[in-house]
Amino acid sequence: MPASLYGTRVRTLVLAVATVGGVGSAPIAPGTFGSLVAMPLLPPLAALRTAAPLAYAVVVAALVVVAVWSAGRAEEILGGHDHSRIVIDEVAGMVATGMFLPATWGAIGVGFVLFRLFDVVKPFPAGFIDGRVEGGFGVVGDDLVAGVYAGALTWLLLRLL
Fold this sequence. Notes:
mainly alpha, 0% strand
């Protein structure tokens, strides 16, 4: 559906979600700011993962679905693949990182640094997804891969140290 066919309310909702309330408009490093916004979500999500794993899985899945939907629509509105203002993908990626982490700020900090590194480097299959998959899943998919890599490596580092 062309962006011009979206109603004003839907367009506003899409952009609010995809830019995480405008965080994506940061003049420098909007992806980093999008990742930072997600950090405070990780401790309560870790607590939910421990207390109610099924509820945790539903929350994470819902976040990914909303991220894919809003990122895909925002691409149409903003023009271009993975527009820099779209940062909901970084939030989803950080939540993927958090799937492996305890609810400590040290672990979350290491996960953040590794997520940003993998988000930039795009190890396989992240680069493939980013370069060849269109729409919302193309925008979010590479960040989910980066998040899983960052979370798994942080988990491993925590076990070894």
